[in-house]
Amino acid sequence: MHKGRLFPALFLLMVIGLFVYGVTELLILRFQKGDVYPPYSSYRSDPLGTKAFYEGLALLQGMETVRNVEPLPKVSGLSETTLFLFGLRAFAMQSASVQALEDAALGGGRVVISLVPMDARPAPPAKKGEKQEAPQEEAKRQQDEEPDPDQEFYGKGHADLCKRWSVETKLSPKKDKEASLSALENDLPPSLAWYSPLVFEPLDEAWRTIYSRAGQPVLIERSYGKGSIVLSSDSFFLSNEAMKSKRYPHLLTWLCGTHQKIIFDETHLGVSQNPGIAKLLRKYGLGPFFMGLMGLALLAIWKQSSRFVPAHEEDEPAPVEAGKDTSSGLTNLLRRNISPENILSACLEEWKRSFTHGKQNLSALLPRIQEIIVPEGARSKKNRDPVQAYRKISVLAKRR
Fold first, then answer.
1. Whole-structure pTM value
2. More confident position, 240 or 26
3. Which fold has domain 37-120+148-277?
């Protein structure tokens, strides 16, 4: 590579290296913090995550915590575990996943689902002379006027948990920030900090209210086969912020149940395992082969861009004279390669090759031509006149 281009290339490589290093550090910081994951994910370490609860359970002797990033129907042994689904946004899931949850509960597992806190939208102020609608009436009117977008959502291989498990959800107009204990559970705290206005309305007597907010259930449980299902309208008491400021260890122990294996599901938050090329290479031991292939590709690129042997300096091209025709070029070529004293001999040799055989056989002229050329060659250089001798030969050939 030319020395003048070496410094810009090195500078460009240095800038690219610094840029890649900076981007990598930013990504590492974001993944360490966990804010790239959805709220209430066990990968998040900020206040909205549940990583503290996950790692706290892992420190307990005899407890095993696992993050699930595979589809629930493909996970085996759910009936022997407590399955946590925190921060569920819509009370609907894929039919196959719902069936896996029900099978886990029927076999003896414990399924705990907490919904993401929802903010109730305040009603717009009424104009003069208009009657202010109650929140329930306004929600019902909007539901009648606007099509429910979840209807199409449920029809595409999804199941409505409200219909499957006989429970309804609604927004409570009351703004109590505390939920009180309703069941006869001596070990549970008498009250909890509750920030979600979402409440439940059980349609089946199998549901048992554990905590209620303003007289309406917010944390309920029911037996399902050999196991149980727990629903919570709020996820704050499970977050990292609650673990620091408002921790309820007895409630968390009650949620875990009697199982020693706890699974934190991440698929309902959109975090799933998607194996890429690098993981497949590690799985099948193709790392060395891939690195060798990359090395060969780099060598091929280097060979095309840089020569192993230094290039010769190119000779400067001869100056080209403009205004010369083909005849002038031939004349210049002859002058450069044949001396004047040898011009007649060279012409004679070319004449012999062309006119002493075949149909145009002029061998009879050869002695007479030599009679002109031989005396001309015997003269001194100053007295020679090859042009006059050439003209005599031309006249002789025309006569013939």
1. 0.58
2. 240
3. Rossmann fold (3.40.50)
